[in-house]
Amino acid sequence: MSRRVTGWIGAGLVVLFVITGLFLLIGKSETPWAPASVSYDPQCEKGCKELRSTSLTHFGDISLYVQPDVDDAIAQWGDCLDSVTRCIEDRGLTSSNIVACVGESICPDTCKTTFSTEARGVSQVGAALDAFERVFINDGAACLPEGGNR
User: How confident is the model at residue 124 (pLDDT cuts 50, 70, 90)?
Assistant: First the structure.
């Protein structure tokens, strides 16, 4: 192989590595959720508690288990949403209560800030709920953990 061809192949490989690195950096998404100290175990091998057992005619005996110590991103997201909905249930469903409850929630600060920006100036309940869905629920939402809306 000539030096010229070898040089072009080398230069092409360098460009490929640079483009791949940039793609990985740009494609890397930041998450507002803290790293898990206890991850979800689909086999429920330890730390699981049985909530209920029953027998169903067509399925036989079934049991429902929960892992209360799991604190992965989806569990944190669920706790965040629960804190908002409990607050709204206590105060009533108004646009100002939705905004206030998100601001006072246990959700990450980045999520609260993003929601505050999305909900700025809303006066209708529907508009506040739309902003909430854009930030926390919809596919691609800033505060939707990976796998959270499947």
Answer: very high
34 pLDDT tier (thresholds 50, 70, 90)? very high
The model's pTM is 0.71
Q: Which long-range contacts (CB under 8 A, 24 or more apart) does 36-39 make?
A: 36/70, 36/71, 36/72, 36/73, 36/75, 37/71, 38/67, 38/69, 38/70, 38/71, 38/72, 39/70, 39/72
Rounded to an integer, what distance in angstroms lies between the CA atom of residue 21 and that of residue 136? Answer: 29
Tell me how far CA of residue 126 lies from CA of 49, 130, 131, in angstroms. 38, 6, 9
Angle at the Cα of 108 (from 107 to 112), degrees rounded to 5? 75
